[in-house]
Design goal:
Layout lengths: L5 E9 L3 E3 L7 E3 L4 E7 L1 H20 L6 H6 L8 H29 L5 E5 L1 H22 L7 H11 L3 H24 L12
Antiparallel strand pairs: 1-4, 2-3, 4-5
Helix pairs in contact: 1-3, 3-4, 4-6, 5-6
């Protein structure tokens, strides 16, 4: 994994038509919203993101909730004070939840460019990305022992000064990057019609 270089986060762009397609399906022209959400990524950035989401995909495909704290974070108990009830709820809901998260992760991997390029999302794809960005950040957060009190930028600076193992520094940088992408996508989705910022690139 390499440290990504951010070109630009997600922004909203108006367009008369734009193309959307599921992996393996024929492209279809859509004018339903006339809006797409675009982020520019460098080649190294796209490669690093692909590695992270591939790892999340593999975790969802074969990981055990009992043995992996990251999966327990992705699929928390529905009842904190009643383990029997929590287990029963999990028995009926986990498969569907896991299927949804897997589909979202696969969509993100399909949307990532090969090399430098743009991530271009419809409104529906943007919602899928929000799901998978959250999941990836939760997994990285568990691996790095990040909590709500952690100042990630300060931690990055401290890690560099202390020469913390490179892999940990890279994961922390990617956590910060995914946070930035998610925040920019949320901001773009909440953008009001009539704004003077068209986001043209």
């Amino acid at each position: 994994m390499v440290v990504p270089t951010v070109f630009r986060g997600f922004h909203r762009r108006h367009q008369d038509t734009f193309t959307t397609a599921q992996p393996g399906a024929a492209a279809e022209s859509s004018t339903q919203s006339g809006v797409e959400y675009v982020a520019e990524v460098a080649s190294l950035e796209a490669d690093a993101m692909r590695q992270v989401f591939q790892q999340v995909l593999e975790l969802l495909e074969g990981g055990s909730i009992r043995s992996d704290p990251a999966l327990r974070r992705l699929f928390p108990d529905g009842y904190r004070d009643d383990q029997a009830a929590a287990n029963e709820l999990r028995r009926f809901s986990e498969a569907a939840l896991r299927t949804g998260k897997l589909a979202a992760c696969r969509q993100v991997l399909a949307d990532l460019p090969t090399g430098q390029g743009q991530i271009r999302l419809s409104a529906a794809q943007a919602q899928t990305w929000l799901i998978s960005l959250t999941d990836a950040r939760l997994v990285l957060g568990i691996r790095l022992d990040i909590n709500s009190q952690t100042d990630v930028l300060a931690q990055l600076t401290e890690d560099c000064e202390r020469e913390r193992p490179q892999q940990a520094r890279l994961l922390l940088a990617m956590y910060q990057h995914l946070t930035y992408l998610q925040e920019s996508l949320l901001e773009a989705l909440s953008h009001r019609e009539g704004s003077t910022d068209t986001g043209d690139v």
